[in-house]
Amino acid sequence: MYDFLFVCVHNAGRSQMAKALLNQFASERGLKIRAESAGTEPAECVHPVVADAMREVGLDVSTERPKLLTDELAENSRKVITMGCAVDADACPTLIFKNIEDWALPDPKGKGIDEVREIRDLISRRAEALVATL
Description:
The protein has helices at 14-28, 48-55, 71-75, 113-132; strands at residues 2-8, 35-39, 77-82, 100-102. By secondary structure, the chain is α/β, with parallel strands linked by helices. The chain has one domain (2-132): 3-Layer(aba) Sandwich (Rossmann fold). Helix 1 packs across helix 4 and helix 2 (48-55) packs across helix 4 (113-132). The two termini are 17 Å apart.
């Protein structure tokens, strides 16, 4: 059972960052919170620029492997947070699941390090605020 499941299309950027950041913030506070991530169309690997941006904040996501969103994974999560359905609703079949929240973030794919840092920092603020409510 996961407390949070972060979902984006390729599971190679936003959802990987959110998972790593939320797990780190929960760990720092001694919380037994577990987050996972998945995608509707998983990529081969995490975007290299995303891995670089995360390394800058002390988290290594370079060895994470994008995984497919399954019904079982969603059903075994207390809350599903999509990363951009408000931005690209056509790529978000996860809307059929209950207890969904969308963070409406831009996709870092194809963006430079400065833009990816901005996306990372947005995710970081949201993940930290989420952990603070637990």
